[in-house]
Amino acid sequence: MTDSSIDQLKLWDSEHVWHAFTQMANYEPLVIDSAIGCLLTDIQGNTYIDAVSSLWCNVHGHQHPVINAAIRKQLDQVAHVTSLGMSNPTTIQLAKRLVDISPDGLNHLFFSGDGSSSVEVAMKMAFQYWQQKGGPQPNKTKYIALGNAYHGDTLGSVSVGGVQRFHEMFKPLLFDVLRIDSPDTYRLPANLSQPQDATQYYLSQLESLLQQHHSTIAAMIIEPVVQGAAGMIMQPAGYLVGVRQLTKKYNVLLIADEVAVGFGRTGAMFACDHENIQPDLMCLAKGLTGGYITMAVTLATTEIWNAFLGDSAHTFYHGHTYGGNPLAAAAAIANLDIFESEQTMVNVHARTAQLANLLKPLMDHPHVGDIRQRGLIVAIELVSDKEQKTPFENLGATGTAVCKAALEQGVWLRPLRDTIVIMPPLSISKTEIIKIVASVEHALHQVLDINRT
To answer: Is the domain of 331 the same as that of 353?
Structure first.
């Protein structure tokens, strides 16, 4: 591209494209022209390692030949078939594949367009289930959610969300939710001294709430194992299975939001697999198509499915024009095929161990408060005072500066305020992991050693 065409694109980008979660007054255009494997190339020819999987969705790298071929083949058959009273072979085959690999009991699935929509579907299903099941319980209309939860940006998913800076503006539009503490093992409650004590503490809080309100609670929604936008908060061992046991005990449905953590990210195909739990509803998106085409699903048990069978009044009146799109379904099937043919999880486990080993020296930095890891999800939390775990005054400025410095080293990262997130495609190579960590280390010293407090 010529300098003038590059400048024109950047101008149009700044003036016309309203970017998500971006303050446009401060936006500096970064325009990606092409990508292959784990490398992004911008319109000026600069290359960057995609160290956050194009916002947590790319699985096997960009331009994977198997996914590319699957989409091209589907294009020669049909590009779109509605799911409203109609279907197509590719989408049907994908549904069966997902049922086969998901936690036991999730035998039915509803296609939608994105992660937020899949959560909205799950919440509406849970509500309607209690209204019309055999022996209905119409008072069960409330939801339990974790503190600092993030489940999407539609009004229902925002209601169960708890990230104040994202959701405070919309508070007048939202419904009330019963909220319990986020199970954080870094910033423990004042009366706890050891992370191993956290599981029972947080489960006791949940049980107390369930004892008081279970007759009015339709469902609890949780990001299993890792709370993403909260800062990649890692839940203590035993917490997830404890939540499942308590929700069953008190007759409350459990919605597992695996939009971000599904498809191998945490070191298991699904985060629920770590503690072998079976939720009543499970939401999938992001990595479903390998990061190629938007698609989401909500999986449900047969008990929930049966409550919607009967006359027209029992119908689930919800739908998305492109739900179950065959192009996306073809990409998703290819995505699952690659997991098997390339033994993707073998690389995940090897790179997980390598990443953990390379990150250890970073804990010696005076402003690295915590390094949390689950599989190929890493959070490096930066603090002003390491001993007191005190955040920086200008929240987010340090994390942004560190990621900008890493970009100059050829690694693209996106922080959660002052938490640096590393979440590369599952196909990331040994040499690329080395470069990612080296770039983060360089960026930390460049940004923080000059103004060490």
So the answer is: no
